[in-house]
Design goal:
Elements (H helix, E strand, L loop, with lengths): L1 E6 L7 H15 L3 E6 L13 H5 L7 H10 L3 E9 L2 E2 L1 H13 L8 E8 L4 H13 L13 E3 L10 H28 L16
Parallel strand pairs: 1-2, 1-3, 3-5, 5-6
Antiparallel strand pairs: 3-4
Helix pairs in contact: 1-6, 3-4
């Protein structure tokens, strides 16, 4: 079992990284393999809606998105970590997720998702809601904690002074590990939920 964690912060060792590392420690205790990918410091362009991925089976822009796509396909869970800018996630992470979820042809059903956000003060819940929408459009169960998955800090390292935030990350990781293991057991007994062969599309303007 494996969890892929994406750090959307441009700072490799910033407060978002502290939150993700707190989760990684728990995953290791739970016997779950992890891989942390730093994406927030990369040049990742947004989706242009060209539809080329439908023909190629991957995004036409061959950058970190396609690299992450291969890792995501073989992962049982995905954690999106981001600092908060103007009550939203880092635009680099947003661009990556737009293209990642749109361009990948494989099913993400029953992969467990979790989002983690970091801010000096406010805007965390808006960014948290934004990131969770990637999971809910893809049939992914969303892991939760004892509070919204946020941690606070401005200067690098200040998140270590947020004990409630750190506890939230640990409980989130334990709950996520439980979901991943439970889904694996359920798959052996019941299989995955039946999917419908044809996806219906309804346009509101005809």
């Amino acid at each position: 079992m494996k969890v892929l964690l994406l750090n959307g912060s441009p700072r490799k060792n910033g407060n978002t990284a502290i939150a993700l590392q707190e989760m990684i420690k728990v995953f290791e205790e739970e016997g779950i393999e992890t891989e942390l990918v730093q994406v927030g410091n990369q040049a990742i362009r947004g989706c242009i809606g060209c539809g080329g991925c439908a023909k190629k089976g991957k995004c036409v822009f061959d950058d970190a998105v396609n690299e992450v796509a291969e890792k995501f396909e073989h992962a049982d869970g995905l954690v999106l970590g981001s600092p908060v800018y103007y009550a939203s996630a880092n635009s680099t992470l947003t661009a990556l997720c737009d293209r990642l979820f749109f361009s990948t042809p494989y099913s993400k059903c029953m992969k467990v998702g979790a989002s983690v956000v970091c801010a000096r003060r406010g805007g965390t819940t808006a960014a948290f809601d934004q990131l969770n929408k990637y999971f809910t459009i893809a049939g992914m169960p969303v892991a939760s904690s004892l509070y919204w998955n946020n941690i606070h800090g401005a200067a690098p390292g200040e998140a270590l002074q947020d004990p409630e935030g750190l506890q939230t990350m640990r409980i989130l990781a334990r709950n996520m590990a439980f979901l991943i293991k439970s889904i694996a057991l359920g798959r052996e007994t019941y299989g995955y939920p039946k999917s419908e062969a044809k996806k219906e599309f309804t346009n509101f303007v005809r």
